[in-house]
Amino acid sequence: xxxxxxxxxxxxxxxxxxxxxxxxxxxxxxxxxxxxxxxxxxxxxxxxxxxxxxxxxxxxxxxxxxxxxxxxxxxxxxxxxxxxxxxxxxxxxxxxxxxxxxxxxxxxxxx
Length: 111
Hints:
Radius of gyration: 15 Å
Largest sheet: 3 strands, antiparallel
Number of helices: 5
Number of strands: 6
Structural class: alpha+beta
């Protein structure tokens, strides 16, 4: 219900990975849209989230975050500040951080 309610506010790259947070914004776990869609409606979110997801802190290097995205084959990596979810690094962000600048200039971009 929450995903449906906030769907217009979500950027497209945020629709595959779902982060569970507590009442203080602390990261509780992560799941994906597929697991939510195939779970029975009465299944509690706690039954399908993965506890202790890989994450980075706000002061960590962008290239280190990109390497974690690649290492764990993630679509989105949570960014935390004092255990509070404050953002994500998407696979697109990771590519931008890892590709040499001269490669990025020649890649086609959709606008």
